[in-house]
Design a protein that fits this description.
The protein is built from 14 helices and twelve strands. The strands form three sheets. It has a seven-stranded mixed beta sheet with strand order 1-9-8-5-4-2-3, sandwiched between helices. Strands 10-11-12 form a three-stranded antiparallel beta sheet, covered by helices on one side.
Length: about 425
């Protein structure tokens, strides 16, 4: 349960120096600062032990407790724990009735999961540009897209980097009100955005469906896992059935019942998306310290803003919400093209033992989407400008001031 380096695909192009590689840190000591580290210094071991001793390792009481506590935190009536945010997005779209031929609006500046789940259902993604300063959808972008595609059934909003999009704030009342006026359902990809708030309300209590990730590099983790939240009882019921093979009865309730309850029915061709209790046990422990972990990330972000904020060769993210309402999953910068350049900067920082990442190469540049939908980069000026120079710096609770100083000193030195 000690801190460890994460190198998963959802980190997107993470460059972490190989084990044993030395870099010239301060005082001549070897130094390696990975892009991401997990902090598990709460009740994780105790809760995992309880699961092991219970004799029931898959979805059961710990998962139920995790759902209930998460519901309290985000203010949603229903929470459904699953094995990934991708699963949550798939289940959410399916519960919203998305099917073959339907159109779903989705930003291009996101991880592929946001769009691939649309294709799972035979629907078609319509890619949208994002605002350069925030990497978010705006009310204006969404309104233009709805005018151009009045047949769109669902909008996927990605709360990029941990900051909520303008769901409640804008000339039309925000993205949410705009979609309500057009009869478009809203699913929020909040993989980066726990715990975050918009207009004083927690992300997770806004749209029709919100999907969270508990991947290893997120603010809280279950190792692998996700959560779907909604206030709609019909959506919640559909998700609960479909996350476990379309079975109409809860397997845990059948297990603990005093009476024989062996019979069940399959009412739909569902999926295997349930969260095991082993993962939920970690999540419960992490949830107890979510605010502490988030605050530690904010401390790192403030350091970066203080040291790098006046540099002309960098663009820092524009923050549209109070700092306390930001989840601080990522701290990304945009390197100006006339400098050493993003790709060379990644190499130079890696040589000094500093891991970085790129979030993201936009989906309109990915082979599958580019070719299938004949996507022209010229249609996405905000995303294009972002991705050509974007670079995510290390951001996690255990970074100390000395680490942060080493990162910023190295960055400034490499920029020249």
């Amino acid at each position: 349960m000690n801190e460890r380096v994460t190198t998963g695909m959802e980190s997107s192009n993470v460059l972490i120096p190989p084990p044993g590689r030395e870099s010239a840190g301060q005082g001549g000591r070897a130094r390696v600062i990975p892009f991401s580290k997990v902090v598990c210094d709460g009740n994780e071991l105790a809760y995992i032990r309880e699961v092991l001793e219970s004799g029931w390792l898959t979805t059961a009481s710990k998962t139920k407790a995790f759902e209930e506590k998460f519901s309290e935190v985000v203010g949603a009536r229903y929470c459904c724990a699953v094995n990934s945010c991708t699963s949550a997005l798939h289940l959410g779209l399916e519960a919203l009735g998305v099917g073959p031929g339907d159109k779903v609006l989705v930003p291009t500046m996101t991880f592929t999961a946001s769009a691939e789940v649309i294709r799972y259902l035979g629907a078609e993604p319509i890619f949208l540009d994002v605002d350069f300063g925030t990497a978010l959808l705006t009310e204006a972008i969404v309104e233009e897209a709805l005018d151009a595609h009045p047949e769109a059934k669902v909008l996927t909003v990605v709360h990029f980097g941990g900051q909520a999009a303008a769901m409640l704030d804008g000339e039309r009342g925000g993205i949410l009100a705009l979609c309500r006026q057009r009869g478009v359902r809203v699913i929020e990809d909040a993989a980066h955005a726990f715990p975050a708030r918009e207009g004083g309300r927690p992300v997770g209590s806004l749209g029709d469906v919100t999907c969270f990730s508990f991947y290893a590099n997120k603010t809280i983790t279950t190792g692998e896992g996700g959560m779907l939240t909604t206030d709609d009882p019909e959506i919640a019921e559909r998700v609960r059935v479909m996350r476990l093979h379309g079975i109409d009865r809860d397997i845990w309730k059948r297990f603990i019942s005093e009476y024989p309850m062996w019979e069940y029915d399959v009412i739909a061709p569902g999926y295997k998306y349930n969260m095991p209790d082993l993962n939920a046990a970690i999540g419960l422990a992490q949830l107890e310290r979510a605010d502490v972990l988030r605050d530690a990330r904010e401390r790192c972000a403030r350091y970066y803003f203080d040291v790098l904020g006046d540099r002309a060769d960098l663009d820092l993210p524009v923050i549209r919400v109070p700092f306390a309402d930001h989840a601080w999953h990522l701290f990304w910068i945009v390197v100006q093209p006339e400098t050493v350049g993003r790709n060379r900067l990644i190499e130079l920082l890696s040589q000094r033992g500093i891991g970085t990442s790129v979030h993201y190469k936009p989906l309109h540049r990915m082979k599958y989407y580019r070719e299938r939908y004949e996507l022209d980069p010229g249609r996405f000026p905000g995303a294009e400008r972002l991705w050509r120079g974007c670079l995510s710096l290390p951001l996690y609770p255990s970074l100390c001031d000395d680490d942060l100083r080493y990162i910023t000193d190295s960055l400034v030195d490499c920029l020249g």
